Amino acid sequence: MKCAVFKEPYNFEIVNRDIPLAGKGQVLVKIMAAGICGSDISPYTGRDIQRRQPGIIMGHEAAGIVESVGEGVTAWKKGDRVAVNPQIYCEKCIYCRTGAYNLCDNMFLIGSSKRVFLDGAMCQYLCISDKQLLSLPGNVGYNEGAMLDPAGNAFRVVRCGGVGVGDTVAVMGCGAIGLIAIQTARIAGAGKVIAVSRSDRKLGIAGEVGADVCINSGDAASAERRIKSLTNGKGADVIIDAAGFADTYALAVKSCKKGGAVVALGYGSTHINFPLTELIFKEIRLIGSTGFAAEGEMVLEYLSKGLIKLDKIITGRFPLEDIKKGFDKLIEPGGSEIKVIINPN
Ligand SMILES: [Zn+2]
Ligand SMILES: [Zn+2]
């Protein structure tokens, strides 16, 4: 099978390897689609290289067809269409045992070398534990199925924020997760959804996927005034930060209403300065959100019902041989890609 091995920044090598054998409790999946995540792009450019060390096969956003099953697997059979949950969880820790497997004490990710060096899905076949698969509804394509992980994150961040009927929700950052969170906030009952980004092109897509108001945050003070004026001077009920920079978190707490919630999902760096007094004296709830648990099944159900639209978000598709083109498209200055999917088969 063909595999795209990450050799060094800006370079992949397409190599031939034996198709792995599904061991006990494992399923061999023929990979039809694998998305490129922002967390893959930084190491590609040489940043955060410990997350994707050279020699690794990247890819944690994947969907495909069951090719064969190992001993003891009864839930899946050859030909089943599946989406991959890339968060390998242990089933033993207290969080797994209480259903919060996105918080698993022993979690690691496929296509990552952060905790454990584990190859991912930028190759033709992937062997994975049977518990990591979700059934892909018949009317959901593989490219859409590969969006399980970013969409799961988007669903969770909206649920963590407790978005309710009539709320005004501002989403900072219009990458794939932000653009799905805009749609999810609407499903949750938001009365007004405000998209905030520095990119007018991304704001254009935000409008197409359902944002009521799109604000360019190039001028942060005027963005704050805009959000306040849209909410009778109060500020938004819930702010979702899917960008993750000091200025977006500052804008988030400044434009959140008193007693409102700021949900933190994005992180451009591990430590961020933001105006703490805004948080304290406005009694803002600051909430973290990571990965997804029960949201996985929800995403597939909502995709199947056509309630989440990904056609404007999946902007590029490339065969495995052209993986470098896909990555290069994503880092092009002023480039137009949001989500690029690699199709290995
Ligand atoms: Zn990802
Ligand atoms: Zn666990």
Keywords for this structure?
27% helix, binds zinc ion, globular, alpha/beta, 11 helices, zinc, oxidoreductase activity, Rossmann fold, 345 residues, 6-stranded parallel sheet, 27% strand, oxidoreductase, 7-stranded mixed sheet, Quinone Oxidoreductase, Chain A, domain 1
Description:
β14 (256-264), α9 and β15 form a beta-alpha-beta unit. The chain has 345 residues and is α/β, with parallel strands linked by helices. The model has no long low-confidence stretch (mean pLDDT 97). It is built from 11 helices and 17 strands. The chain is globular, with a radius of gyration of 20 Å. 48% of the residues are buried. The strands form 4 sheets. Strands 3, 4, 5, 8, 9, 16 and 17 form a 7-stranded mixed sheet that branches. The protein has a 6-stranded parallel sheet with strand order 12-11-10-13-14-15, with helices on both faces. It folds into 2 domains: 2-147 and 313-343, Medium-chain alcohol dehydrogenases, catalytic domain (Quinone Oxidoreductase, Chain A, domain 1), CATH 3.90.180.10; 152-288, 3-Layer(aba) Sandwich (Rossmann fold). The structure holds zinc ion (2 copies). One zinc ion (ZN) binds at residues 89-90, 92-93, 95-96, 104-106. Its cofactor is Zn(2+). Belongs to the zinc-containing alcohol dehydrogenase family. This is L-iditol 2-dehydrogenase. GO terms for molecular function: oxidoreductase activity; zinc ion binding. Keywords: Metal-binding, Oxidoreductase, Zinc.
